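Convert to structure. Protein one:
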Amino acid sequence: MAKGDDALARKKNKSTRKKMNRKNDSATVSTRIASIIAAKKRRKSGKRSMCQGMCFSLPTPEDPFNERQGKVDITKKKTKKVKTRDALHKKKEDKKPNVMSIDVIGKNIDGPLKFLTSCLNKIDSSFRSDGTYTDDQHDKYLFTSTWGIEFWKCFWSGKDILETSGTSSTMEQIAWIVSTATDAIARREKEEPEESFRNSPYLLFLVPSPSRASKVRSVCKALKGLGIHAVSLHQGASLDHQIAGLKSCEPEFLVSTPERLLEIVTLKGVDISGVSLLVIDELGSLCTAGYLDAVKSIKQSISSKHQSIVFNDSFSASNIPAVRSLLGESISRISLSDSVASQGSCIIQTVNVCSSEEQKLHKFAEILDSSSSKLIYIVTKEESFRKFKALLKLKGHSVSASEVKKSRKPMARLIDIEQLDTTVMRDFETVLLPDFVPSIDTYIQILTSMARDSVHGVLHSFLTQKVAASYPAGPLVNVLEDCGQNVPEAWRNMYSSV
């Protein structure tokens, strides 16, 4: 039976509605899903383009090289977990302390210092196993040492180092020295070709006795697993045996007494010309035992550029020339002690008691003539400025009351006692006190502030007998004696009578 026009119209409208519904369904989905549906339809109909799959879209500012080929980055954002205060506190307690990076002027040293920390940890473990640490030192860690971090900074500054505690090196100090040397060897091997290395040891540690040599070597043993070999040379062992051991081992660290090392060097049993770090322990004991000339000969045998570290176990003024002969012009000071004797180490103090003002002025002029320093700091009373300024100009010095400027002439800075600023005195090796100072505290402040980067400091004090009679001699005598300085006989008698 033929269908009427109404039936055909209904059928056509139904087909149209289905098409509209399909269009509406595709519009409700996202653009990405719609593109996937369209691609599927093209594949079924056989109308897929030849380039499809190679480039789906044009480059965009977010993807300029079209590396993602139009694909949307659907990586999930990481959600941060909120940690409670208790959890953070517990994690902080469980975490082991670590060495932080240290800034050194003029050196590109990366951090954290993992290898240095590893060396210190190995020595730490050996200290705990062999009983070096007592029960109350169980929580102690070498890499938290204030002295060690300060030493590390001084070492990488390249200057010679003077330890002014007045004692021999401690186990902690030895551990930091050998660990820093091991770290320096590793850096050198990484930065320089191996062919440039000499057969000389990197570290030479001079000690006054076999017992000290054994103590130092016991610390170095912990680093054997890192390829560091340490050899101890001293009396009590066969000379031939020690020479044979040196030739077979070629150690990185050499610990020795001066006289035995000189014997082996004379027999060409070891080459020390390429030593990079020289440590002289207990210099006062070495001088007392008569080994100073041997130490100087050993230092002269080192032809390479090297650093020297001196542990001065004596504050005696008689040892100051020895320290000066072994260290460079510019040094770094480091100490475990804050005492006046430690801070004023290697500064010669003289107290000149004169009969009159004229004799004091004459003595002042003599010291000016004999001084080799180009920078002199003079602290005096304001009413004496004109007198001393005229004398300084007569001696060829350029005088300044503020900052010292560059000049071909020797410079002198003239400062009023009432306006004394000791923070600017660290570069001055020679300080003169023509009118002395009003208190012993001011004197100590000057002594511990001057010549911080030198071992050539000299502090001269001048006063007349009249002033000396009214001045309390006791505190000054105590400072001079603690620092190992010469005390004037008149001053000592005055102190004794009191």
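Protein two, convert as well:
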Amino acid sequence: MLNLNASHMNHHSFLLTGIPGVPEKNSWMAFPLGLLYTLTLLGNGTILSIIKVDSSLHEPMYYFLSILALTDIGLSMSTLPSMLSIFWFNAPEISFDACITQMFFIHGFGVVESGVLVSMAFDRCVAIQDPLRYASILTSGVIGKIGVAILARAICVVFPVPFLIKRLPFCHSNVLSHSYCLHQDAMQLACASTRVNSLYGLIVVVCTLGFDALIILFSYVLILKTVLGIASWAERLKAFNTCLSHICAVLLFYVPLIGVTMIHRFGKHLPPIVHTLMANVYLLLPPVLNPIIYSIKTKQIRKRIVQVFFKRKGQA
């Protein structure tokens, strides 16, 4: 184990936390975490490969799904190095520069994922409200521009975060409360005023994630209005069923995010294990479950996976 007293004087690194209070149990998490990361790569990789090889899936909905899969892989890979370091190699120390780099990618991919979910809501809104012009509105060029805009927005809003952290002096404990670096977590260890950091973090959350959530909600109000205007109940269910996978993806992203935010703001009295559990659910669960949900609920993808599986089984 590292000498924690000595590490408090080291301003060039942080100590990440595995399972709070019971660090000797960290090794128990090695296999489950390895399984989660494997499922993430396998699931999202399968989605990407199926969409690439099946020309019938070269449609706006599946292009956005591909961007979501790439984002989930990027988010998972952002947490992978520190997770493996703690739970596989029992090495909780991370350099200051590596920490703020990881921080940038975690928050960046979080903003990207939120933007992708907004784009997918827009896609469903256009598909249901104006199906005849769907393909002409969401062309490949438009989708490409949307993707670039989502990425550019994420880079612009997260870019100041590393500099805001680097300007702070850390003269007290450098033990973080999670298995990876987050802005709000590192900020709490500073021995100077963090008002600028807190204000900027709040502005980013409100103007990106909060604004995105409102746009998604407004999109579904329009979708619901259109669906209720359809005379046939069967057609209503069919139209709404095309949105079900996206609704699940939105809930998987925003519910844990709201939980983490509320706990950080108002749950300081809660046991550390609660903070760790919520933070891990927020970052690890959506990349694992999103491809499973879309594989189950999307007929074309499910059919293609079954075809590939039985083709390989027949060859064997």
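The longest strand covers residues 13-15. Residues 96-129 form the longest helix (34 residues).
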